[in-house]
Write a structure and sequence with these properties.
The complex is a heterodimer. Chain A folds into two domains: 7-37, no CATH class; 41-113. Helices cover 0% and strands 49% of the residues of chain A. The two termini of chain A are 23 Å apart. In chain A, a hairpin with a 2-residue loop joins strand 7 and strand 8 (105-113). In chain A, the strands form two sheets. A five-stranded mixed barrel of chain A has the order 4-5-6-8-7. A three-stranded antiparallel beta sheet of chain A has the order 2-1-3, with no helix packed on it. Chain A is globular, with a radius of gyration of 15 Å. Chain A contains no helices and eight strands. By secondary structure, chain B is of the alpha/beta class. Chain B has a domain at 4-116 and 216-234: 3-Layer(aba) Sandwich (Peroxisomal Thiolase, Chain A, domain 1). In chain B, 38% of the residues lie in helices and 19% in strands. Chain B has 15 helices and eleven strands. The longest helix of chain B has 17 residues, at 342-358. The chains are: A mainly beta, B alpha/beta. Chains A and B meet through strand 4, strand 5, strand 6 and strand 7 of A and helix 5, helix 6 and strand 5 of B.
């Protein structure tokens, strides 16, 4: 499975999709899962512009949101110029990028932006 | 199961910035509670703390506090459950006494957070978030508060004015609390509607402004719990009964919750506490609500069952939750004004309940001899919540 595609963890018993990973299914408590690709395009549910980022984030402000991919939701950074560019219900697509550093190590994840 | 009481309550010096050590700060609150209880014959000490291992380079705080205060032969342990550490420790203290293992237990909560720069403290608190799904992306607790607030604004018509109204109320109460970190009168003009408001009250995590969130504080608080059958020895009146306790859980990643505006763990914890106490929401005279962000005061009041979903702000607009209102909320000033040293908060909420029920809350005392008080201590971003009900049963 490519790490550059959003994924979900599908329960091999009941089929429920999860993100993030769990050791037991949230619906049936089964322990086996398979990774399945999910849409890399989703709908913005809620968002913020954070002007006090934590250590490990270089920029002075950060756009963050919750994106509904249909099967699962992701939380992540959004690349836009201004909060005025964001509204609930807008479409966003995922790109794999460095999101921050932790203990000086680069950390990668999905960053979301307008199509 | 034996009934349990609280016979002592104390907080250290005024919360805010503490110049001594973490243990010295927790010792101040502990001694205040011991003096209030009139006994130092304590069987066990549970210390509530979230991050001393990370930001103060100290662990095993239960052992350290017993040693520092010579509480031997008391036994002890540290309890860590994020911002709900305080009420969790009290809940464990309740279990220890109710089960008959111990008779007298001291719960001391403390956190010394102002030793590190803001971004470091923000990051430390954010380690409670889901490590892969939230934390690595730069999610902080103010940002989770903002994501919730925007949903609330859009779904229920809550406004920035509503949040400011809560902050003004809690600051007003904090002015009457000598322990409060923030003792400052604020006005709608000063923080929202005037030209200067943008400077006074900058946006931190849109739509949340600085005054929509609690400060970073040092502070400590302590209670002494005792079995009901032993409480007669101390001739304490009124007797404050630990009437109800409940704990609820939810998913760690907030985005996995079907409706993120409903705090399921608050409902579970509250339902348990009310069932145990044999009380209804209408029996509660006042409440301490975990308002790390003012939007949480609304969401917790609704999820705990005091108001219908999406309606609490309407009662706030009517003044119902003010000190002189029908249902006073956060008479202590709440996290907003009293402060939020994470491990101490849940214990300080119980101190406030004890003082109000005894009629010892000074200028902020609510009228009409309150009989039942409720507290909710909110851990993680609502994935681990403890609710407590205290009742005045005699005197």
């Amino acid at each position: 499975m490519s790490i550059h595609t959003p994924i979900a963890y599908k329960c091999l018993n009941c089929g429920k999709l999860h993100y993030p990973k769990h050791g037991r299914c949230l619906q049936c408590k089964h322990r086996e899962f398979e990774e399945v690709p999910v849409s890399s395009e989703g709908t913005l549910i809620t968002f913020t512009q954070l002007k006090a980022p934590p250590s490990g984030i270089e920029s002075r402000s950060l756009f963050l949101g919750v994106i509904d991919l249909g099967d699962v939701r992701y939380t992540g950074q959004i690349e836009v110029e201004s909060i005025d560019s964001l509204h609930s219900g807008m479409k966003l697509v995922a790109t794999w990028k460095q999101v921050r550093t932790i203990d000086n190590r680069p950390i990668y994840g999905f960053v979301w932006g307008p199509p | 199961m034996r009934d349990v009481t609280i016979i002592g309550a104390g907080m250290g010096s005024r919360w805010g910035k503490y110049s001594g050590s973490l243990i010295e700060m927790m010792a101040e609150a502990s001694l205040s509670a011991i003096d209030d209880a009139g006994t130092d014959e304590i069987d066990a000490v549970f210390v509530a703390n979230m991050g001393a291992g990370r930001i103060n380079n100290q662990t095993a705080l239960g052992s350290a506090l017993i040693d520092y205060l010579n509480l031997f032969p008391a036994v002890g342990a540290s309890i860590e459950n994020g911002p709900a550490s305080g009420a969790t420790a009290a809940r464990i203290g309740y279990m220890a006494i109710a089960s008959g293992v111990h008779d007298v237990v001291m719960i001391t909560g403390g956190e010394k957070m102002r030793v590190a720069p803001g971004p470091v403290v923000t990051d430390f608190v954010a380690t409670m978030a889901h490590p892969e799904a939230e934390y690595i992306h730069g999610i902080t607790f103010p940002s989770l508060g903002a994501l919730l607030a925007r949903l609330y604004f859009e779904k229920y018509g809550v406004t920035s004015e509503d949040l400011a109204r809560i902050a003004i109320k809690n600051h007003q109460n904090g002015l009457k609390n000598p322990h409060a970190h923030i003792r400052q009168k604020i006005t709608m003009e000063g923080i929202l509607t005037s030209r200067e408001a943008k400077l006074n009250n900058p946006m931190i995590a849109d739509p949340l402004h600085l005054y929509d969130m609690c400060p970073v504080s040092d502070g400590s608080a302590s209670i002494i719990m005792c079995s009901m059958n032993k409480v007669q020895e101390f001739e304490k009146t009124p007797i404050i009964k630990f009437a109800g306790t409940g704990q609820g859980m939810d998913t760690m990643a907030v985005h996995e919750r079907e409706d993120p505006t409903f705090l399921k763990a608050v409902k579970i914890a509250s339902d348990q506490a009310f069932k145990m106490a044999g009380l209804t929401r209408e029996d509660i005279d006042f409440a301490e609500i975990h308002d790390a962000f003012e939007i949480l005061e609304l969401a917790e009041l609704e999820s705990a069952g005091f108001y219908e979903r999406g309606k609490a702000h309407l009662s706030v607009r009517e003044g119902e939750t003010e000190l002189t209102g029908k249902f006073p909320v956060n008479t202590s000033g709440g996290l907003k004004a009293r402060g939020h040293p994470v491990g101490a908060t849940g214990v300080a909420q119980l101190c406030e309940l004890v003082w109000q029920l005894r009629g010892e809350a000074g200028e902020r005392q609510i009228p009409n001899d309150p009989k039942h008080g409720y507290a909710v201590n909110f851990g993680g971003f609502g994935n681990n919540v403890v609710s407590t009900i205290l009742s005045r049963v005699k005197g």
